[in-house]
TrEMBL record:
Gene3D superfamilies: 3.40.50.12370. The lineage of its organism: Bacteria, Pseudomonadati, Bacteroidota, Cytophagia, Cytophagales. Residues 146-272 form the UspA domain. This is Universal stress protein family protein. It comes from the Bacteria.
Length: 291
């Protein structure tokens, strides 16, 4: 059973805040969530001298806390116990990572605007530095989640994401499907038959699925799809499958074996985050990786 002891919701004082708070309420109404922290950091290094001269000694943190309190009061409806935390630090990523550790946050909810409205630079930094799983909610996403897609590459990280997806689908009666994107060694064409290469590649993957089902009997009945990359990146194929299958949630496992935090996220999750995808993406670390 999936239960969230502590959840952090990152707000940026933009129009997406109301959507994030309302989505948080929908999560709390469907999953056991003990505590929610609505957070915002005032990046003091970005406050101009003109701002200081104009507003003087105004308690900016208190004003922002009041603004967030109004949004939470209107859209959260006391769906769970919560606190509002407003900080004034020069580095947003560092203070949020500190809050994750301080309050044992298990899941962070992060809003994402489309690329024509935001570079997404802060979001990418947060994905790399936060020591917890992250749920990315695009501004165009839907609240109602009925269909889950989980891509796997048979790594421990992707299997962990799959098992979490299965627990979530069982708990909330959702439809779950697995996908695997495979690539062919095209540099050997036409020395070998492309048709034979496809057949062999799919045989290998089918055997991997067979072994996976032997080890994890709970996923025996979960349908899966094999997709050939065919000139596209893995992330592009996943995005295309999301649109084709009209899925409401994408669950992706994150690897943490690299000792350099900036390199531990992985290229596929990074590319998926940077795409204009209308589907929420749950980027999952296992407890072992976080430890």
């Amino acid at each position: 059973m999936i239960a969230i002891d502590a959840m952090m919701v990152c707000l940026d004082l933009s129009n997406i805040d109301e959507t994030l708070v309302a989505f948080t309420r929908s999560i709390c109404e469907r999953l056991p969530v003990k505590k929610v922290y609505f957070v915002h950091n005032v990046k003091t290094s970005e406050l101009s001298d003109d701002f200081r001269a104009l507003f003087g000694d105004v308690d900016l943190g208190k004003e922002i806390e009041g603004n967030i309190a109004d949004i939470v009061s209107e859209h959260f409806n006391n769906a769970a116990d919560y606190d509002i935390l407003v900080s004034e630090e020069p580095n947003t990523e560092v203070i949020l990572a500190d809050l994750v550790k301080r309050y044992s946050i298990k899941l962070t909810l992060l809003g994402k605007r489309m690329s024509d409205k935001s570079t997404g630079a802060l979001g990418t930094k947060l994905l790399r530095i936060l020591p917890c799983s992250v749920l990315v909610f695009p501004e165009t996403a839907r609240f109602n989640i009925g269909r889950i897609l989980t891509p796997i590459d048979f790594s421990d990280a992707s299997v962990h994401a799959l098992r979490l997806s299965k627990s979530l689908s069982d708990q909330l009666a959702l439809y779950l499907e697995i996908m695997h994107v495979y690539k062919l060694p095209t540099q050997y064409f036409p020395l070998i038959s492309e048709e034979k290469a496809v057949k062999k590649a799919e045989e290998v993957v089918q055997e991997k699925f067979k072994n996976l089902r032997k080890r994890h009997r709970e996923i025996v009945d979960v349908p899966y799809t094999l997709v050939r990359a065919a000139g596209k990146s893995i992330a592009e194929r996943i995005a295309m499958e999301l649109q084709r299958g009209k899925y409401d949630l994408l669950v992706v496992g994150l690897k943490g074996s690299n000792p350099i935090p900036s390199l531990s996220l992985g290229s596929v999750p990074t590319k998926l985050y940077n795409m204009d995808i209308n589907t929420p993406i749950w980027l999952v670390y296992s407890e072992e990786v976080i430890k």
